[in-house]
Amino acid sequence: MIAELSGILALVESGWHHPRVLVVGDVMLDQYIWGEVDRISPEAPVPVLRATLRDEKPGGAANVAMNLAALGACVTLVGFAGGDREHQNLESLLADHGIEPSLITVPAAPTTTKLRILSAHQQMMRVDSEGVAEFSAGDYQRLLQCALAAISNTSVVVLSDYAKGVLAEKVCLELIGEAGRRGIPVLVDPKSRDFARYHGATAICPNLKELAAATGETAADLDSLLSAGQRLVSALGVEYIAVTLGEKGIAVLQRDSRSRAPAVVRQVYDVSGAGDTVIAVLALAEARGVAIETAIELANVAAGIVVSKVGTVPIQREELLGALSQQAAFHMDEKVLQRDRLLSRVSAWRSAGDRIVFSNGCFDILHIGHICLLELARRKGDRLIIGLNSDDSVRRLKGPLRPVVTEQERARVLAALSAVDAVVVFDEDTPLRLIEALRPDVLVKGGDYTEDMVIGAREVRAWGGRVELIPLIGNISTSRLIAKSANSAGSRGFARSFSA
Predict the structure, then answer these.
(1) Among all residues, which ones are annotated catalytic?
(2) Is the CATH number of domain 332-498 3.40.50.620?
(3) Where are the chain's structural domains?
(4) Whose CA is closest to 422, among 326, 278, 290, 486?
(5) For residue 249, how many other CB atoms are within 10 A of its CB?
(6) What is the pTM for the complete model shown?
(7) Fold of 5-328
(8) 91-122 pLDDT per residue, tens
């Protein structure tokens, strides 16, 4: 369970308040050919792929930028590209996702591309195309000028090293030094075996193999490897090293402590790009002062989402919200939402393909009739939202002695029900404005209504939804329960005052 889940949900829903992030590193263009295999070539013992789809996506450091932008950050990306068609396509894809590309043209070094050929969700082959030319001192100077110009307006810096030449030692040390002077955190996804070039960064985020290469320890002896990683923390002057351990989760190594967050169990289709997602989430957490323990738990959730996809696919904010809201479902306080936060959560649910059910009422003194109604309503879709009349709204509808139970208590009691996914209080006499904002797929009311009496029925049908009327259980109502209770106490006048 993620600590301070309510605050984290609010951060994710807000897009982390849109911090500015500078990403510097090796950009690539990931290309995909999808198809079907149903025979072996007569020319050689190899499968014949009948291509059905071709696609291109930003890769390498550009995929880190895509993850950050999808989560809400304002991203500037600095790197080298070849001034070729792939360079143009990459910049166009980045700009389409709101990323500001500042790619230094180096004609002698064509843009790195990785072509993946896939069938039935399985990668059959990868073909890499990349230049072998050395970058000149002038190339590095132009890159540094561009990055340093962007750093002044940045909340966090990410160095995404794919060992393609951008993050030379001089570049790393100069950017880390300048960020340090400005109090800006720097996170590094390393590829170099020599971590000395990352000296003074806030954090280094290697995988198990990369940490083994940097320390000289074997990955088979995890305890010795992590101990060696802890010694690196002190030697490099970093705050922590976050090591991705695959199915074993993520380990956080600090000078005097070590902790591990277990992996979120999901079916794994493709681990490519998982490290990019982890460092993107950690960078946003640094930008907003989230504790490292909480940040690592959140990064684990995000990584679990992307490895369940095929290809290098960035995390989407709605996907992360959907995963977090599953945890929130076990805590009633996480289900009682203001309207703007509820709209964000509904967007996440819809992105996951969930059908939204809405019902409303006063729910003053919850009884078995209410419970049965809500349980049956939940079966009409995937997520049930309750619109709850505020205290003022109940008084206008039921009279000055109602409600018996305050709106805060009524909301929390409803939220404690497993059938209910969210509760929102509204102050109007009817929930029409709320219904129009949420646009539910199913609108539910009790069987004491006819469809033409249901507020919002016409609107829901207009956008393709439906109205469901659920039969009531017996002759139970809050007013009757109040009257019965008052009569039992010998307070007939009291009972009559509630009977309206």
Answers:
(1) 276
(2) yes
(3) 5-328, 332-498
(4) 326
(5) 19
(6) 0.77
(7) UDP-N-acetylmuramoyl-L-alanine:D-glutamate ligase (3.40.1190)
(8) 999 999 999 999 999 998 999 999 999 998 88
